[in-house]
Hints:
Chain A has helices at residues 2-24, 32-46, 51-62, 65-71, 73-78, 80-85, 87-111, 116-122, 129-139, 143-168, 173-195, 197-225.
Amino acid sequence: MSTALLMMVMTVAIYLATLFVYRRHRRLYTTPVIVSTALIVIILLVFHLPYETYMTGGKWIDRLLGPAVVALAYPLYQFRDILKKMFVPIMTGTVIGAVVGIVSGLLLSKWAGFSDLIIHSIVPKSVTTPVAMSISESTGGVMPLTAVFVMIAGIGGLLIHPFVLKVSGLTHRIGRGVGMGSASHAIGTSASMERDTMEGSISTVAMVLSAVIVSIIAPGLTLLFM
Amino acid sequence: MNRFVIVVLQIAGLYGLYLTGSWIQQVLGLFIPGSVIGMLLLFVLLSLKIVPERLLQQGVAFMIRHLPFFFIPATVGIISYAHVFKGKGLLLIAIGLFSTAMVMAVSGRVTQTLVKRREEA
């Protein structure tokens, strides 16, 4: 019990410290989720603590992820008019993004010669963890490995976001939101939400649509391209 | 009532919606996670004015402001799979990043083009 409490207190303290730094020094490399994760990983490695030990406390925070996702209904509701008006562009972009994500991940890892197990694990990376894990399970991937790929898409998405915006000429808030939600799920959405509530709400919609679309088309596309 | 108590009660309300969503998922055998069903449920309740907007307001604002915090335990999970990404495995990170960039650029551009066309019309 004391270990669990210590892990929880440590996570809260590190998060608050990184948030404090981030509010005074807003840079990509000071993003709280990235710095906190790195610090905790270093601490666990230094003290030879396995992930399971960390999760005795971490699971209590993890359990609040569900209600945190539920809370996203509010921004969705606030921007319902614009969503209704722009539903077709948002839906079209998200569907095409879902196909691009599945096919590119699958073909690239296949050409690089990785095992089927790894390929199946990388396919659902652009959707939120619980959905990605259940897709991975049904297509024959490894669930915890899928969770890692989901993190690469999420945190990696934050890192490459400024570069992608510049290269692809994404200037419109709706386009940016769809790009973020389709590629980097809830981690990307939380970053979008911080920049601009409307962009964040569009990202929320894209993330939810993408989760549903990917779980429907991933099994078929996997069969087609394997 | 104290502000702290209000926020805690409202988060408990959100948790209740999450549990309801998970229950619906199990009963109907859906592949969409309980949290997403809970969110859609709350959206419907707000739209039908069954739940007034201010009922959960402060709790929602708190959760959204600190959304990244709730991901930390999951992202720390990378530690258990570090070995997969050694040597040739490094290529997997590059593939993941490249594919993510493609999704972001393509889905964003398609939407942007369609939105602009609609705004001009």
